[in-house]
C-alpha cells in the first residue's frame, strides 16, 4: 500500500508542478479573461446526468461571449472531471479556485458531492451554483441553490395528488441516501399534519442501483388494493428508475390505478425507456421541455443547434443553470467586479426571466423563486403539464414541517446568517 | 366523484330534453371538449356516453387515443386512415379552418374514459373487448351500468367474460344502498370465489349501510381469501427468488469459466455483459430502421452477435494482456480493472452517457396468472433462458473436444501440455467462451435493467459472490449458489427490507466462507492445487 501512496504522491507533485509552471506562463493571458469553473462528472456513475450540464455551461459561456463577454472581457470555461468520486469533487474544486483562479463555479449533482465541496468554497471564499433539486436544511454564504427546495417540488406534488387524484394512502419509495431520507421525513410529517394515519403510509428504501423490483412492486400493488386510492411518491435515484418503471409496466400497475409521482425522473431519464406503458405517471419539476413559451422555444432551438443533435432533450437542472448563470452575469455587472464578496452581496434581489414564462428572483436565503409544475408522462417520453402553481414559489432553506428546523431562517442580507433561530434569537441554531 | 357525475348526467339529460327539438344531449355535450378544462372534458364524457348516440363510442375511443381534435369551437375525429370527420354530424370534413389540437388527457379523464367505454362496450362482438369492458365496470362500480350488465350477463356465452361480468355485478351490488340483502349475500359468494386481492379489498371495505348478516358473511369470506393469499405468497416469493437467481446465474456463469476453471480474476467481466446489451441495442436500431417486421425476433438475432462481439473482445483481451499475467492474481486484478474502466469510458464516448432504449418484443410483455401468483412473461423467459444456457454450457464442457481440453488444462496444466494440448490456445478459447456467455447474458439483462455504460458494474460483485459461494471450478456449484442467493434474498426482503436483507445475506456469506473457504461444492483430491 505504501508504495502506491508514494507513487501517487509523486505523481500529484509532478502534475501540480506542471500546472503551476503552465499557469505562470499563461499569467499574462489570464488577465484578459474571466474564468468560470464547471465541476460536473464526465465519467463514472453520475456522468449520465452531469455531462449534459457541462454542455449547457459551455453553450451559455459561448453565447455570453458572442454578446461581447462580461465587463469588457471574454469568459472562459474551465472544465474539470471529478469522475463521480466525492472526495475528488473537493480536490477538483480546490484546483479550480486556487490554480485556475475561477470567479465562480457551476457544478455538483448529488448532495454528498455538494457537502464534500462546501468546506473548500468556505475556506477559499468562492461561489458555487448548485442546479439540482435537493433536500433543503442548508444555507451557506458561498452557495446559491438554483434547484428546487422540498417546498418547491415535494409538498406541492403531494397536495396535487391529494386534491386532484383524491389519494388517501401513500407509498414513499426512495433510494437509501440523504436526499430521499430527508424528503420523506418532511413528507411524512406533512402528511401526518394533514390527518393521514400512520398505517396509510408505507416507506421503503432500496440500495443505489437496485435492479430487482419484483417484491417491492408487488408490495405496492398489495398496499394499493386496500380500498383507498393509493399513490407512490418516488425519490428513487438515477439508474434504479429504469428497472423500477419496467417492472411497474410488467406487473400492470397503471397510472389510473396507482399513479407514481417522481422527483428525480426527467426527460433525460425517460430517454432510456419505452414510455407507452407509463403514460399518466407523474413528475414534479420546475421546468419541462414541453412548456410552451417563447423563451423555452428559443432555448431548445439554440440547444439543439449547439449540440448538433435534433433529438437532444432539455430538463430541469439545465434550466437551473441557465437561471443561475444569468443571475451571476447580472450580479457581476451590477457589482462591476467578479470579486466573490461583492458578487455575493450584489446577487440577492437580482431577477432574471426563467424559461417557463416567469421571472425568478434570488432570495436572501440564497434560494430562488420558481413555479412548480406537475406533468404526466406522454407516450413520446415528454411531459404534459397538468397543473402548475399560479405564482412563483419562494424556496425555503429550512422546512416548516420538521422539528428543529421550523424555527430557523436563513438571511444573508440583513442577518448575515444561514441558520438564525427565531426563538432563541441566535445565529447557529 | 361518481355522485357528481351522475348528477351532472341527470342535469344534462334535463337540459337535453328541454332543447330536444334543437339538439340532443350529445350535441349539447360536444362543445365542452373545446374548453381545455379537465373537469369539462370529464363531464362531457359522461354526457356523451349517456346520450346513446351511435357516434358516442367513436368519440370516446378517439379521445382515449389522442385522435379527438378541437379547433374553432368544433370537434373532429381523426380516423386511423387520417381522414377527419365532424364529431357532431359524422360527416367527412375536408379542410379544417385553423389549427386543430388534440383534447388533452389526465388520469382523471382517463378513468372517466375507461368507465364510459366499459358500460358502452359490454356487448361488443369482440370477446377481448368485452372482457376489458367488464373489468372497467368492476373498477368504476358505476350503478348506472347495472341494467346493461344484467343484459350482457343474460346473453354472454364466453365463460371468462361471464365470470368477469358477474364479479362486476357483485361489486356494484355490494356498494349499492338499496340492493336486497339476499342479492348482497350472493355477491359476497361470487367475490369469495374470485378470491384475489381486489375481491379482498371490496369485502373488507363494506359501506356503512351494509346489513349485519352481509357484514358477517363478508368478514368470513375475507378471512378465507387472506389465508389463501398468504399461502400463495410463499410460492410467489420463491418464484421471485428463482427469477433473481436466474439473473445472477446468467451474470455469473461466464465468470464461473474464466475465474472458476482458469483462476483469472476478471474485473472486466461486467463490461462483457454490457457489450452484449449494447449489441442488442445496435441490432434493434438496425431492425427498426431497415426490417421493422423482424422486431419480435430481435433478441434471438442479437444472441449470436452478442456472443461473437463479447467473445472476440475476450479473446483479444486474453491474447494481449491476460496471458502475460497468469499466476499473478494481483496484477491480473488491477489490469482487468483498468480494462473495465477503459471499456466503460469507450462506450460512453461512442454511445453517450445516457441510457439507451432497448424495446421488449410483444411476446415478452404481460403476465401469466397461476392461482394467486402472477408470473410476468419476461421473467419466465429469463428463467428458461438461464437454464438453457447452463445446460448448453454443461454439455459443451462434457462432450466437445474443447470442453475436454479445458477440463484437462484446469486439472493439470503441465500434464495436459505434455499430452500435446496447446494450452495457450485452450486458454484463449476458454476465455473467449466465458466472455461470450457474458455477452448473451447482456442480451437478457437489457430487458430488465438500464442499458448504460455502468450496466456491468452492478453485477460484478454479485457474480464473484455466486462463484465463490458455489465453489470455484464447478458449474453445478454456480447454479446452486445463484439459486440459493436469489431465493434467500427474496425470502428475506419482505421482512427485512431491501437494504437490510442484502446486508444480512452478505454477513451470512462471510460466515459461510469462514467455515468452508472453498464454497459449497469444493473440488477434492489431487485436482486441488496446493
UniProtKB/TrEMBL annotation, chain A:
This is Urea ABC transporter substrate-binding protein. It holds the Pfam family Peripla_BP_5. Residues 1-27 form the signal peptide. It comes from Microvirga arsenatis. NCBIfam families: urea_ABC_UrtA. Coiled coil: none annotated. The keyword Ribosomal protein does not apply. Keywords: Signal. The gene is urtA. CDD domains: PBP1_FmdD-like. The lineage of its organism: Bacteria, Pseudomonadati, Pseudomonadota, Alphaproteobacteria, Hyphomicrobiales. InterPro entries: ABC_urea-bd_UrtA, Peripla_BP_I, TAT_signal. The keyword Signal applies.
Automatic annotation (TrEMBL), chain B:
Keywords: Amino-acid transport, Cell membrane, Membrane, Signal, Transmembrane, Transmembrane helix, Transport. The gene is urtB. It is found in: Cell membrane. The keyword DNA repair does not apply. It comes from the Bacteria. Pfam families: BPD_transp_2. The chain crosses the membrane at residues 238-260, 297-317, 329-347, 380-405, 426-445, 465-488, 495-513. This is Urea ABC transporter permease subunit UrtB. Belongs to the binding-protein-dependent transport system permease family. LivHM subfamily. InterPro entries: ABC_transp_permease, ABC_UrtB_bac, ARM-type_fold, BCAA_transport_permease.
Amino acid at each position: 500500500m505504501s508504495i502506491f501512496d508514494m507513487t501517487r504522491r509523486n505523481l500529484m507533485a509532478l502534475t501540480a508542478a506542471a500546472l503551476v509552471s503552465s499557469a505562470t506562463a499563461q499569467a499574462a493571458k489570464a488577465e484578459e479573461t474571466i474564468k468560470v469553473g464547471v465541476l460536473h462528472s464526465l465519467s463514472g456513475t453520475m456522468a449520465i446526468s452531469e455531462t449534459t450540464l457541462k454542455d449547457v455551461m459551455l453553450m451559455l459561456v459561448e453565447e455570453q461571449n458572442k454578446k461581447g463577454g462580461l465587463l469588457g472581457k471574454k469568459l472562459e470555461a474551465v472544465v474539470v472531471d471529478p469522475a463521480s468520486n466525492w472526495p475528488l469533487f473537493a480536490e477538483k474544486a480546490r484546483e479550480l479556485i486556487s490554480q485556475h483562479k475561477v470567479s465562480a463555479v457551476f457544478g455538483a449533482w448529488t448532495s454528498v458531492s455538494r457537502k464534500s465541496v462546501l468546506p473548500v468554497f468556505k475556506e477559499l471564499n468562492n461561489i458555487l451554483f448548485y442546479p439540482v433539486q435537493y433536500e433543503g436544511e442548508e444555507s451557506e454564504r458561498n452557495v446559491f441553490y438554483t434547484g428546487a427546495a422540498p417546498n418547491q417540488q415535494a409538498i406541492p406534488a403531494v397536495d396535487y395528488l391529494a386534491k386532484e387524484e383524491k389519494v388517501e394512502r401513500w407509498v414513499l419509495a426512495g433510494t437509501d441516501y440523504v436526499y430521499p431520507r430527508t424528503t420523506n421525513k418532511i413528507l411524512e410529517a406533512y402528511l401526518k399534519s394533514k390527518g393521514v394515519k400512520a398505517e396509510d403510509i408505507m416507506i421503503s428504501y432500496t440500495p443505489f442501483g437496485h435492479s430487482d423490483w419484483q417484491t417491492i412492486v408487488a408490495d405496492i400493488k398489495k398496499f394499493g388494493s386496500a380500498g383507498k386510492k393509493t399513490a407512490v411518491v418516488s425519490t428513487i435515484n438515477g439508474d434504479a428508475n429504469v428497472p423500477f418503471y419496467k417492472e411497474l409496466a410488467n406487473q400492470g400497475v397503471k397510472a389510473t390505478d396507482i399513479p407514481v409521482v417522481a422527483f428525480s425522473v426527467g426527460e433525460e431519464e425517460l430517454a432510456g425507456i419505452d414510455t407507452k406503458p407509463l403514460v399518466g405517471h407523474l413528475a414534479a419539476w420546475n421546468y419541462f421541455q414541453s412548456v410552451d413559451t417563447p423563451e423555452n422555444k428559443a432555448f431548445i432551438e439554440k440547444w439543439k443547434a449547439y449540440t448538433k443533435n435534433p433529438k437532444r432533450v432539455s430538463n430541469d437542472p439545465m434550466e437551473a443553470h441557465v437561471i443561475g448563470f444569468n443571475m451571476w452575469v447580472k450580479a457581476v455587472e451590477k457589482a462591476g467586479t467578479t470579486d466573490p464578496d461583492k458578487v455575493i452581496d450584489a446577487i440577492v434581489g437580482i431577477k432574471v426571466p426563467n424559461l417557463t414564462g416567469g421571472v425568478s428572483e434570488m432570495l436572501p436565503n440564497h434560494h430562488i423563486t420558481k413555479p412548480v409544475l406537475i406533468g404526466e408522462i406522454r407516450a413520446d417520453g415528454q411531459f404534459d403539464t397538468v397543473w402548475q402553481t399560479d405564482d412563483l414559489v419562494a424556496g425555503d432553506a429550512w422546512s416548516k414541517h420538521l422539528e428543529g428546523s421550523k424555527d430557523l431562517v436563513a438571511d444573508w442580507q440583513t442577518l448575515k446568517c444561514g441558520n438564525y433561530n427565531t426563538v432563541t434569537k441566535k445565529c447557529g441554531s | 366523484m361518481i355522485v357528481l357525475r351522475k348528477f351532472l348526467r341527470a342535469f344534462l339529460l334535463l337540459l337535453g330534453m328541454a332543447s330536444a327539438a334543437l339538439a340532443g344531449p350529445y350535441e349539447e355535450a360536444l362543445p365542452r371538449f373545446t374548453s381545455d378544462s379537465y373537469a369539462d372534458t370529464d363531464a362531457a364524457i359522461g354526457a356523451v356516453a349517456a346520450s346513446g348516440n351511435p357516434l358516442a363510442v367513436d368519440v370516446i375511443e378517439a379521445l382515449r387515443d389522442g385522435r379527438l381534435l378541437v379547433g374553432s369551437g368544433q370537434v373532429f375525429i381523426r380516423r386511423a386512415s387520417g381522414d377527419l370527420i365532424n364529431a357532431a354530424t359524422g360527416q367527412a370534413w375536408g379542410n379544417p379552418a385553423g389549427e386543430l389540437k388534440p383534447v388533452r388527457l389526465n388520469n382523471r379523464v382517463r378513468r372517466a374514459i375507461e368507465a364510459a367505454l366499459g358500460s358502452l362496450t359490454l356487448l361488443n362482438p369482440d370477446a377481448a373487448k368485452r372482457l376489458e369492458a367488464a373489468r372497467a365496470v368492476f373498477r368504476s362500480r358505476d350503478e348506472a351500468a347495472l341494467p346493461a350488465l344484467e343484459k350482457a350477463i343474460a346473453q354472454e356465452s364466453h365463460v371468462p367474460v361471464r365470470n368477469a361480468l358477474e364479479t362486476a355485478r357483485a361489486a356494484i351490488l355490494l356498494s349499492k344502498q338499496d340492493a336486497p340483502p339476499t342479492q348482497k349475500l350472493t355477491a359476497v359468494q361470487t367475490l369469495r370465489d374470485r378470491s384475489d386481492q381486489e375481491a379482498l379489498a371490496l369485502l373488507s371495505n363494506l359501506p356503512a349501510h351494509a346489513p349485519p348478516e352481509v357484514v358477517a358473511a363478508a368478514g368470513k369470506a375475507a378471512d378465507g381469501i387472506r389465508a389463501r393469499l398468504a399461502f400463495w405468497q410463499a410460492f410467489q416469493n420463491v418464484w421471485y427468488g428463482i427469477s433473481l437467481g436466474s439473473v445472477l446465474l446468467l451474470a455469473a456463469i461466464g465468470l464461473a469459466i474464466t475465474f472458476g476453471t482458469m483462476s483469472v480474476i476478471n474485473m472486466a467481466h461486467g463490461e462483457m455483459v454490457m457489450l452484449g446489451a449494447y449489441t442488442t441495442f445496435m441490432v434493434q436500431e438496425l431492425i427498426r430502421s431497415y426490417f421493422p417486421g423482424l422486431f419480435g425476433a430481435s433478441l434471438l438475432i442479437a444472441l449470436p452477435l452478442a456472443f461473437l462481439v463479447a467473445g472476440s473482445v475476450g479473446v483479444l483481451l486474453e491474447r494481449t494482456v491476460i496471458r502475460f499475467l497468469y499466476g499473478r492474481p494481483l496484477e491480473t486484478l488491477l489490469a482487468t480493472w483498468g480494462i473495465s474502466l477503459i471499456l466503460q469510458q469507450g462506450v460512453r464516448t461512442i454511445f453517450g452517457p445516457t441510457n439507451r432504449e432497448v424495446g421488449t418484443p410483444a411476446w415478452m410483455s404481460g403476465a401469466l396468472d397461476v392461482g394467486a401468483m402472477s408470473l410476468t412473461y419476461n421473467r419466465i423467459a429469463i428463467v428458461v433462458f438461464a437454464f438453457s444456457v447452463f445446460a448448453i454450457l454443461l454439455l459443451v464442457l462434457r462432450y466437445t473436444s474443447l470442453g475436454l481440453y479445458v477440463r484437462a488444462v484446469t486439472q493439470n496444466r503441465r500434464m495436459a501440455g505434455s499430452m500435446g494440448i496447446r494450452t495457450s490456445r485452450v486458454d484463449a478459447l476458454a476465455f473467449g467462451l466465458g466472455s461470450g456467455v457474458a455477452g448473451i447474458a447482456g442480451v437478457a439483462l437489457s430487458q430488465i435493467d438500464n442499458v448504460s455504460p455502468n450496466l456491468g458494474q452492478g453485477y460484478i460483485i454479485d457474480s464473484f459472490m455466486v462463484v465463490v459461494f458455489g465453489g470455484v471450478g464447478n458449474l453445478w456449484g454456480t447454479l446452486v449458489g445463484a439459486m440459493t442467493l436469489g431465493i434467500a434474498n427474496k425470502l428475506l426482503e419482505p421482512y427485512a427490507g431491501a437494504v437490510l436483507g442484502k446486508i444480512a445475506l452478505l454477513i451470512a456469506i462471510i460466515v459461510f466462507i469462514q467455515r468452508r473457504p472453498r464454497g459449497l461444492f469444493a473440488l477434492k483430491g489431487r485436482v486441488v492445487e496446493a
